[in-house]
Specification:
Elements lengths: L1 E2 L3 E2 H7 L2 E4 L7 E4 L1 H5 L1 H14 L5 E5 L2 H13 L2 E7 L7 E8 L2 E8 L9 E9 L3 H12 L3 E10 L5 H4 L5 E6 L1
Parallel strand pairs: 5-6, 5-9, 9-10, 10-11
Antiparallel strand pairs: 1-2, 3-4, 6-8, 7-8
Helix pairs in contact: 3-4
């Protein structure tokens, strides 16, 4: 996909991603996608590129918080439903929980335990950044526990040096940009 003349979507993502050193903890290079999301033409190109890999999806699953922003736009474009995987304490009980390790700590994600029937549904996981794979791995485990058919995952940016793709294999991951 091209945008702004002949620039591929990966180049547009890179040009609108702000690197923030030592956030949220020292030693972490945070990828701030706020400028990308605020640019309507660039955001539309990102959603178009994601729609190209999400065919056959019954439900788009976004990972809080920035993955859910992208997933909501994608679900609208595809005409599907949306499920947001939330951080611990954000959903009313009962919930299913999964703990995971990030590059700078641990966290817990949750989905509703009894308000949705996800068994056999074709779902596509969406996140903003693939780093160590902890978040996508935990989301995958949660969805597998409820019987969802995970058709793949897609991310806006993949941090290749952190080898997250290897940590979540054999999950098929589509990256729009690599850093």
């Amino acid at each position: 996909m091209n945008l702004r003349g002949s620039a591929p979507v990966a180049d547009v993502i890179a040009s609108l991603t702000r690197d923030v050193a030592d956030f949220p903890t020292p030693g972490i290079q945070f990828k701030d996608l706020t400028p990308l999301f605020a640019d309507s033409e660039a955001m539309s190109a990102v959603i178009d590129a994601l729609a190209d890999v999400a065919g056959g999806t019954d439900l788009v699953v976004g990972i809080e918080s920035r993955g859910a922003v992208v997933a909501a736009a994608l679900a609208s474009r595809l005409g599907t439903g949306l499920l947001s995987i939330r951080k611990s304490g954000k959903l009313p009980p009962p919930v299913l929980s999964e703990d995971y390790q990030m590059e700078y700590g641990t966290a817990t994600m949750e989905i509703p335990a009894d308000s949705l029937d996800l068994a056999g549904r074709n779902v596509m996981l969406i996140d903003d950044v693939l780093a160590t794979g902890g978040t996508l791995g935990a989301a995958t485990r949660l969805l597998e526990r409820v019987g969802a058919n995970i058709t793949g995952a897609a991310v806006v940016v993949e941090l290749e040096a952190l080898r997250g793709r290897e940590a979540i294999a054999p999950l098929q991951v589509h990256s729009l940009s690599r850093a």
